[in-house]
Structure formats: C-alpha cells, structure tokens
From TrEMBL:
InterPro entries: 6-PGluconate_DH-like_C_sf, NAD(P)-bd_dom_sf, UDP-Glc/GDP-Man, UDP-Glc/GDP-Man_DH_C, UDP-Glc/GDP-Man_DH_C_sf, UDP-Glc/GDP-Man_DH_dimer, UDP-Glc/GDP-Man_DH_N, UDPglc_DH_bac. Belongs to the UDP-glucose/GDP-mannose dehydrogenase family. NCBIfam families: NDP-sugDHase. Its EC number is 1.1.1.22. The lineage of its organism: Bacteria, Bacillati, Actinomycetota, Actinomycetes, Micrococcales. It comes from Microbacterium schleiferi. This is UDP-glucose 6-dehydrogenase. Keywords: NAD, Oxidoreductase. Pathway: Nucleotide-sugar biosynthesis; UDP-alpha-D-glucuronate biosynthesis; UDP-alpha-D-glucuronate from UDP-alpha-D-glucose: step 1/1.
Length: 436
C-alpha cells in the first residue's frame, strides 16, 4: 500500500522505515532538509538498534524515500502524522503548532477516501478539532497512537503489544479500520490485539499509558525515599511486591527517575489538559509524580556530596552515562546529564562518558569534560556515579579494575544496577538509591 509519513523525527523515521520493511511503498516527509538528506542517504539520524538496516533495505528496494516536498504525499492512501508535540516554552501544555501545520500542509494533497492517521501524542480532544478540516477534503481522520520505546522502536513498531485506532462512528470510520488492518497486516494476522475506539479514547489511551508508567516509577521512587529513612532496601521491596502478578516487577526500578522525550512532557501536558477540562483534581497526583521523580536527582547529588565530606568543590567526579536510558543516544530531559550538570554547577570537575550520547550531550552542555573511553574517564576520580545503566557499566566493570584507575573509592549507583556486595568487598563505599 502507498503510505506517507509526515514528520521524520524519532517516531516518523522509525515508522516510515518499519512500514517499508513490511512491504509498503512509503514516502517520509519533513520540513528539516538536513534530516531528509541524511535519511535519503540511508543514515539513521539517531542511535536506534535495527533502524539503520531497515532504512538501507527499504531505500535499496525502492520502497522507501524521503523528501521535503509535501506534494509527494499525493497518491498515498494512508498519511501518518508523527510530528512533535513538545512542551510549550512558557508552560506545561503541549505545543500543537507542528500538528496543525502538518495537517494544513497536507490538505491540498488529500484525495477522497484517504485516511489521515494521527500518531503524535496529543491532548485529548485534538483530533475532534482537526477532523472537520480533513473531512472537508473528503478524507477521514483517525488516531493511531504510538507506544514505541526508544531502544526497541523498530520491534515495537513492527511487532507491537497492541494496536489502537480511534475512528469516527461513520461508514468512513469503518472503512478506515479496514484500511489500517491491511496496513498492519503482519501483526494483525499474528493475533496482536487491535482495538477500535472513538477518537478521544484513542488519544487518552496514549497519555494514560504514559501516566501509568510514570506513576509506577515514581511510586517505587517514593518507596525509596521512605526506605532511606528506615534503612530498608527498595530493590528487595520491588522484587517482593513485583511477584504479585497484579503489580509486576517491570517499571519498578528505583533510581534517579524517568526522563526522555516522552514521559516527563506527557504527564505535564496531561495534567495541563485535565485542568483545561475542569478535571485538574482527577490527575493532580501527576504533579506529585513529577516532583518525586525530580527529587531523586537531588538525592543523587546529595549522596555524592555527603560521601565526599560535604562538598564537591574541586573534586574529580566521573559520571558514567549521559543518555536518559541505555540503548539510546537521546539526552532530552536526561536525569543522568542533569545530575552531571548540577555537580559541575557546584564546582566539581565533572568528567562524563557514554557509549552513544556524548556528541548530543556535548552540543547541549559544552562545559563538561567529555571522554570517549570509559577507563580514561575513570582515571583519577575521587567519586564515580553510574547514572545510565549501560552494560559497559553494569556488567562489564569489575570493581578491582576500577580501583586501579580512580583516586577515591566512592561509587554512587544512581540506577541500582551494580552488585553492591562486590563493590563493598573490593573496598568501595557503595551508595545506592533507597538502599542501606
Ligand atoms: C516511553 C514509554 O515506555 C513508551 O511506551 C512511549 O511510547 C514513550 O515513552 P521511552 O521514553 O523510550 O518510552 O522510555 P522508557 O523505557 O519508558 O523509560 C523512560 C524513563 O524511565 C527512562 O529515563 C528510564 O531510565 C526510566 N525508568 C524506567 C526508571 O527510572 N525505572 C524503571 O523501572 C523504568
């Protein structure tokens, strides 16, 4: 099927390449010429496992191309809209400028019977506001939220947990469902749940899912705060409650909290939207979730400060990790980088390394000392912080080896990902998050 994908950022670039990989004929469209040039050359503009391969294959097979020319959307049957919905500069609400601009730019190229499938995360009610414009062009607007995780984006797109499509309760809506089932034929045939809802529910599913995930993380981080007072161990607590299938162990990783381009902005936008709808109190807890999460960054800074005798001033601190999570080069709202920047602000000599995110981090925070090689970064450190749980730090870093490189023996495990006993046995002062 002929498809267009408007917006070639994280979501759009992956979606376009993934749709080509399952056999569709796809054009990706974006206003950013540099991005389009890179994608047209088959270069993934960010680190995402598996993306490079499907980009190259799709382009070589002639099923995938990228352009800045919106008229290329003409002739496609489904137009996916995956542009960004960032946090507004002066508030918490989502900025819908790009969504509106993308729809307006697309309208002249729509044909009757086309489906416009919104994928961006939007405040509930957005689709209803956009629908009349799309319908006036004879097309149907549906909402098909995206649940991909960075680092797993290709897998999550080709083989998702579920597909959700919000459609209007009309014949055109029913026809759009049939078309989308054809688009997603491989997962549909495999039995992947395909949920058809109204537009508002589909929009809400996405923000509710992210709010739930953020709440789960913040809940365990709140337990970490309590554990710290009484000398309990939040990782054992998480294991114990996680055995209850109703709770589950996933997303109960206490540490320096969630970051990235989605969870923080999405819960803020959701709270702002609920307030607009006069239901602010229903999700008032999300503000608290945000606060708990942000407090854990303070805690990591406090732990290293206390361990260094009350001040980090002119101390050599090595920060392992800059990305907001492993298998990503994304530094948007990265707790890891935030902790590093704060320590630098307090007068520490901060050296930071990361397997993938150094270039992005350097461009945003040039004041830090960036080192590619982990061992080089560790040399001479008074204290070490692990803030992104890459395997290079979690599994492949023996305490005895690190002892030969550093000046001090202080390690702060901001992700509770190290073997505390192994570090202590090697003579280190180990500090976890919510652990004695
Ligand atoms: C998230 C959602 O998972 C995804 O479904 C949605 O489409 C986009 O937002 P992503 O931002 O890629 O995906 O990252 P995710 O894996 O959810 O992690 C988010 C943050 O939470 C990271 O900073 C991670 O380190 C943190 N986290 C995750 C924890 O602190 N503890 C955990 O137990 C799990």
């Amino acid at each position: 099927m002929k498809l267009s994908v408007i917006g070639c950022g994280y979501l759009g670039a992956v979606h376009a390449a993934a749709m080509a990989s399952i056999g569709h004929d796809v054009v990706g469209i974006d206003v950013d010429e540099r991005k389009i040039d890179a994608l047209s050359r088959g270069e993934a503009p960010f680190f995402e496992p598996g993306l490079q391969d499907i980009l190259t294959e799709g382009i070589a097979a002639g099923r995938l191309r990228f352009t800045t020319d919106m008229s290329a959307a003409q002739g496609a049957i489904v137009h996916f809209v995956g542009v960004g919905t960032p946090q507004q500069k002066d508030g918490y609400a989502a900025d819908l400028t790009y969504v509106n601009a993308a729809i307006d730019a697309l309208l002249p190229y729509l044909s009757p019977g086309d489906v416009v499938a919104g994928k961006s995360t939007v405040p509930v009610g957005t689709a209803a506001g956009l629908a009349p414009r799309v319908e006036a062009a004879g097309a149907t607007l549906v909402w098909n939220p995206e649940f991909l995780r960075e680092g797993w984006a290709v897998k999550d797109t080709i083989d998702p947990d579920r597909l959700v499509v919000g459609v209007p309760a009309t014949d055109a809506g029913a026809a759009a469902v049939d078309i989308l089932k054809q688009v997603y034929a491989p997962p549909v045939e495999k039995g992947t749940p395909f949920l058809v809802t109204d537009l508002a529910t589909a929009e809400l599913v996405k923000v509710a899912a992210n709010a739930f995930l953020a709440t789960k993380i913040s809940f365990i981080n709140a337990m970490a705060e309590i554990a710290e007072v009484v000398g309990a161990d939040v990782t054992q607590l998480a294991d114990a409650i996680g055995h209850d299938a109703r709770i589950g162990r996933k997303f109960l990783g206490a540490g320096i909290g969630f970051g990235g381009g989605c969870l923080p902005k999405d819960i803020r936008a959701f709270a702002a939207r609920a307030e607009e709808l006069g239901r602010g109190e229903s999700v008032a807890f999300l503000r608290q979730m945000d606060e708990i999460n942000l407090r854990r960054r303070d805690r990591a800074v406090q732990l290293v400060t206390d361990a260094l005798g009350g001040s980090v001033f002119k101390k050599n601190i090595t920060v392992l990790g800059a990305a907001f999570k492993p298998f990503s080069d994304d530094i948007r709202d990265s707790p890891a980088l935030d902790v590093a920047v704060r320590l630098h602000g307090l007068g520490a000599w901060v050296t930071i390394t990361d397997p993938e995110a150094i270039e992005n981090a350097k461009a945003k925070h040039p004041q830090l000392n960036y080192v590619d090689d982990r061992d080089e970064a560790l040399r001479g450190a008074d204290a070490v912080l692990v803030v992104t749980e890459w395997d290079e730090y979690r599994r492949q870093m023996a305490p005895e080896h690190v002892s030969e490189l550093t000046a001090g023996r202080i390690i702060v495990d901001g992700r509770n990902c190290l073997d505390a006993a192994a570090w202590r046995n090697a003579g280190w002062d180990y500090y976890g998050m919510g652990r004695p």
